[in-house]
UniProtKB/TrEMBL annotation:
This is Glycoside hydrolase family 127 protein. Keywords: Hydrolase. It comes from the Bacteria. The keyword Disulfide bond does not apply. Pfam families: Beta-AFase-like_GH127_cat, Glyco_hydro127C, Glyco_hydro127M. The keyword Hydrolase applies. SUPFAM superfamilies: Six-hairpin glycosidases. Residues 445-536 form the Non-reducing end beta-L-arabinofuranosidase-like GH127 middle domain. Residues 21-431 form the Non-reducing end beta-L-arabinofuranosidase-like GH127 catalytic domain. It comes from Neglectibacter timonensis. Coiled coil: none annotated. GO terms for molecular function: hydrolase activity.
Amino acid sequence: MKREVLKELPLSAAALTGGMLQEYQQLLVEEMLPYQIEILEQGGALDMIRRAAGYRVPERTEPGRPTDVGKLLEATAYALLLREDPALKRKLEELIGLLEQAQYADGYLHPIMQASRPSDRFLSLLMSHEMYTLGHYMEGLLACYEALGNEQALRCARGIGDCLCQWFGTEPGKIRGYDGHPEVELALYRLYGCTGEKKYLECLRFFVEERGRSGPEHPHYFDWEQQRNREKFGKPVLGELSRWADRHRPYWGNYEYFQAHLPARQLREPTGHAVRATYFYCGMADLAMETGDEELMEACRSLWQGFEQGNVALNGSIGQDGFWEGIGRAYDLPPDYSYNETCAAIGLFLFGHRMMRLEPDGAYGDQMELSLYNTVLAGTSLDGRHYFYCNPLEVWPHSLYRYDKIHIQARRYEWDDCPCCPPNEARLLGELGRFAVLSGRQEAWVNLYTGLRCTLPLDSGPVRMEMVTEYPREGRIRITVLDSARFTLRLRIPAWCREWRLLLNGERTPAAAEKGFAALERSWQPGDCAVLELEMPCRRVYADPRAYHLAHQTAVMRGPLLYCAEQADNGELLSRILLPDSSVLEEHWEEDLLGGVYTVTAEARRAMLQEGPLYRAGPPAWEKMQLKLVPYYTWANREEGEMRVFFPEIRTGL
């Protein structure tokens, strides 16, 4: 029997109304989106689409990357839901028109391939990101349809889906292959949801089930493709990525990098390129949601547990290996050179959302908010115009000349040669309302706390609800039901919260947390108000002793927010600082610092600098100091300098 799957709220029925996340949506509309559109225009990405549509535009010596235009399409559609902007809407409609003009009659839409290698279509799936690009265009176009009702965008998205259905499958004459970078799976499920047409679901099923298969009568597709290309073209990988592919070939292993080393149902441990991994796991979960496939569900559950049990950094990011953006071995979590890509944290967030829909558990929501507040938000500056690709937990600028730290930055970049993260973050910020509340038949599951106005599609009829909170700065959440209905309101109790209480219409009500959620089942009347109060004192956090690089160290958190020390507040060489276990953590609201934040201070010890030989017989002298910590998501918004999350702890009781 197919399990019940919780429903997402459409964005038209869920609007953020206040709090930190709504502030970031405002930043998206006012700063991030205009800046990113300008960058893509200046870089030539939009000109390449115009050229593919048949317009004469100036040639560029370094053409832009239309790969990320799909993500920006999506973010723009969401932004127009957040704020009316006739000029932006006209620009979006113009871009949709250009894409439809550029689209081939069979639905194929890839401006770079169409302009430079039109005869190479689907010949080099291993490294080309070809279907990855098609998937992002599809998702962006579908967002324009879902958010704005643009039929032209839906027509264009269906064309891409029809092209994929025509070219790929197990039928004679079709390609039994799949893209080296999963993403199109998510787009096909979304297209199926918009149209209800089973062929798109079957195409998704093919891509999920075919990936990683091989046998005596059925060679591994990537082996077959490379051999075919060697024989026909003289090189295994075609196009501009062939040199990159040759250099990195030893690190592909047995295709773990591409999530193609085993069939989907046999996957148990997260491995390979972190973004590819999370995107493919999302596709697996989507298929499991629709079909009730328990084998796929078990694989997804095991993969999630693999992340939780040794592969997630304290800031909620994944992918330790900086050389190939990959998931490392469990407990290998070096704070100073883990890759921790922003896109990988977004992928983990999206995977967690799907797991929450499949089997509601507060642990999924805990991980989602950890990734959201401490890596996704850290990925962009407070001005919305500077970005991090990687999100380490320790930065010493003096060491960044080293090859093994070439990916680490002490200052956010204005743009990047591979600008996948900025538009990816933009689209996630735009659709945050989709993730806050999920609905069952007669249940509302509140997973993320933010100012929100929404309408729940319960079986008994629609119910309006409002949420008011300053979370995660404060722990008080007020939820008001605006219509009469009998249903169960379920509120996530984060695992970090030791003390909490629930009030109904001003009176404390007993409630126990089951699988991370407290439940209120009743007949609600208009104006009924539930208030959840979460205690969120500052607390110390310790890594599992198997996390080799983090032994005997502690970090500080407040609620879901991770804290860090910066050189701007604590001076140079943060490595000199020790934190006694007896020191009291004190919080302070600072209105004029970093947009308004709670800082944390504690009495610490710092080794004093003195002249002399490099190595000495005696220990250094120590001085007392006041350690000051700021939320991790705000780091690198002042002058360039050191940053550190974990500090050695002096155990006074030993």
